[in-house]
Write a structure and sequence with these properties.
The protein is of the alpha+beta class. Helix content is about 30%, strand content about 20%. It folds into two domains: about 200 residues, Glycoside hydrolase, family 65, N-terminal domain (Beta-galactosidase, Chain A, domain 5), CATH 2.70.98; about 375 residues, Glycosyltransferase, CATH 1.50.10.10. A hairpin with a 2-residue loop joins strand 11 and strand 12.
């Protein structure tokens, strides 16, 4: 719950932490605290946006906003991703319940963005604006016997509404309407989208009923989560948010639902995250496995294995949500969030080498087998092949976890290679895969010795960002989970990172990052884990409580980063890495008590 909030746009933009999300496993819409849906890519998460007000204050939106000053109270329904917002004005109160609906057979053949508007008390007059953009292609409006249709490229769209919604304007590019609630009134409006298929025009009562059906489906899913420990309500909300990013059509896991949002206001690090990174997908699969969401974990793991296996001899860093090569990066001609340009689509990381991905994949297979599940023969063969590749490749420089242009011998990448061979050896010894166990174990020892010899700072008593530097990398906090600790080195590394990269519970990614971006949510969670796994669970719990304060600004939808000075959200959202690392941080308290 946001409590009583009076949404204010600055230069036409809402704070990123004032967005909630709704979705159905195919697309995700961001709903501003003022009732404006400012981002929706339909029919799919990686489609061009229909609403893009996040990039352009005068851009596309579907707004449902009182015509007079108001405050709001807002929440997700318990155990659900159905959103409820109560608008409070001097003349009355009205509640808006929002969902991208699913049906009895799962995902509907069309996209159905539904908004139920109920009068709680008095009267509230709403202005309704629907203004899709033409990123999908030319926009053309047409009147049909059953509906007013707007064609946008190959998409067929319509605004469904009852007769008591007054249409003020309806042309090719914009619909403007008014609606007034009274005590006890209830109506439903919806925006429907079909892609290269006939568009159904359901009765509004059917659309309205599917809001509650979707709510039941979300609750059914969250009730099956197996976690029962500290911070359970935060855990469930985080898992529900992470579920938005599981692309139901294939099983891919998107890194985030948006593109081009800045890591620093006015900065140029504005990237497209609507793709599936091996790293993020593997971490998410582990989170789903540990949470008891077995169907999601199996589906995502199967997609990941098939995609990598079919791709070629070595895995790519990132794939599209249907398993293809990510398009080249290009710049979109829009003003950008609060003037932050360039706004990019595609992603140049596709050409990089990130050796830590090997550890992510083998660690996922290891956890899958340790939890009593069975690796199929193609997966086993792929794990064997990847382990052999690590033996041949670990001495290479790469771009590291943070996808930097500066190729180095990044310490975290080497530890990822070490982890891959340790897990491969374990899987082979226990009969899950075949292969050169002795060779893998011997090479893992060589990697560990190399790291200790080349990536350790005696002055700082810390592992460093990469060989030959005194800079630090907060990603090394994650290695406490891997069991890399020996001779107290990870404990002193944790202390050095906390000393140099942390501001309270907030942590920057690496030395110098504070000049370029905000604190990185995932690193904040890894610091919690590092305290838990290195024997100070009470400290970890204190840090998690402190971290949940700034994260709680958006009641469960996490950005990539936080500005430590203002508490404002930065980067794309909902950000998968932020959500999954928060889940693992909560797990770490339970695991180490």
């Amino acid at each position: 719950m946001l409590g009583s909030l009076q949404p204010r746009r600055s230069c036409g933009f809402l704070p990123l932490e004032h967005y909630a999300a709704i979705g159905e496993g195919r697309s995700v819409a961001l709903v501003g605290a003022d009732g404006s849906i400012d981002w929706w890519c339909a029919p799919d998460m990686d489609s061009p946006p229909l609403f893009n007000r996040l990039h352009d204050a005068k851009g596309g939106c579907f707004s449902l906003t009182p015509v007079v000053p108001f405050s709001i109270e807002r929440r997700y329904r318990e155990g659900s991703n159905v959103l409820e917002t109560t608008f409070i004005t001097d003349t009355g109160q009205a509640r808006v319940t929002e969902s991208i609906n699913s049906g009895a057979g799962g995902r509907l053949p069309w996209c159905e963005l539904a908004r139920r508007v109920e009068g709680v008390s008095g009267e509230v007059e709403f202005a309704i604006v629907i203004q899709p953009i033409c990123a999908q292609g030319k926009v053309r409006r047409a009147d049909h016997p059953n509906a007013s249709i707007r064609y946008i490229g190959d998409l067929t769209t319509t605004f469904c509404h009852p007769d008591d919604v007054l249409i003020v304007k309806d042309d090719d590019h914009k619909t403007v309407a008014r609606y007034r609630t009274t005590t006890g009134s209830s109506t439903c409006i919806a925006y429907l989208v079909a892609d290269k298929a006939p568009l159904a025009i359901p009765d509004l009562s059917e659309i309205d009923s599917r809001i509650d059906f979707s709510d039941d489906e979300w609750r059914r899913w969250s009730e099956q989560l197996s976690y029962d420990g500290p911070f359970k309500s935060d855990f469930v909300r985080c898992a529900l948010s992470l579920k938005f990013l599981l692309y139901a059509k294939t099983g891919a896991i998107a890194a985030a639902a948006t593109a081009g949002l800045p890591e620093r206001i006015g900065g140029d690090k504005n990237y497209d995250y609507r793709y599936a990174w091996i790293r993020d997908a593997a971490y998410t699969i582990k989170a789903f496995l540990r949470a008891g969401a077995l169907a999601e974990a199996i589906g995502a793991f199967g997609w990941l294995i098939r995609t990598i296996d079919e791709d070629g001899p070595t895995p790519s860093v990132v794939y599209t949500l249907d398993g293809r090569e990510v398009p080249d990066e290009r710049v979109i001609d829009v003003p950008g969030y609060k003037g932050s340009t360039p706004v990019r689509t595609g992603n140049r990381a596709k050409t990089q080498v990130q050796l830590s991905c090997y550890g992510d994949l083998l660690e996922t297979a290891f956890l899958f087998a340790e939890m009593g599940h069975v690796l199929d023969p193609p997966t086993a063969r792929l794990m064997e092949r990847l382990a052999d590749q690590v033996v041949d490749r670990w001495r290479e420089k790469d771009s590291g976890l943070w996808e930097l242009e500066d190729k180095q011998h990044y310490t975290f990448s080497k530890i990822g290679c070490w982890l891959a061979l340790v897990r491969a050896s374990h899987l082979a010894r226990h009969g899950h895969i075949e292969g050169g166990t002795d060779r893998w174990e011997e090479e893992s020892r060589k990697i560990r010795d190399w790291i200790d010899a080349h990536c350790w700072s005696e002055e700082k008593k810390s592992y460093t960002f990469y060989a030959g530097t005194e800079k630090l990398d907060a990603a090394l906090l994650l290695t406490t989970r891997f069991g890399f600790e020996h001779d107290g080195r990870l404990k002193t590394t944790r202390d050095a990172i906390e000393r140099e990269l942390a501001i309270g519970p907030l942590v920057y990614r690496y030395s110098g990052a504070a000049d370029e971006e905000g604190a990185f949510v995932a690193c904040c969670c890894w610091l919690v884990e590092a305290h838990a796994f290195l024997g100070d669970v009470d400290r970890a719990e204190e840090m998690l409580k402190a971290l949940l304060e700034p994260l709680g600004n958006n009641f469960g939808i996490l950005c990539e980063q936080i500005d430590p000075e203002s508490g404002a959200g930065l980067g794309n959202l909902p950000q998968g890495l932020s959500h999954l690392t928060l889940l693992h941080a909560i797990f770490s308290l339970q695991e180490n008590r």
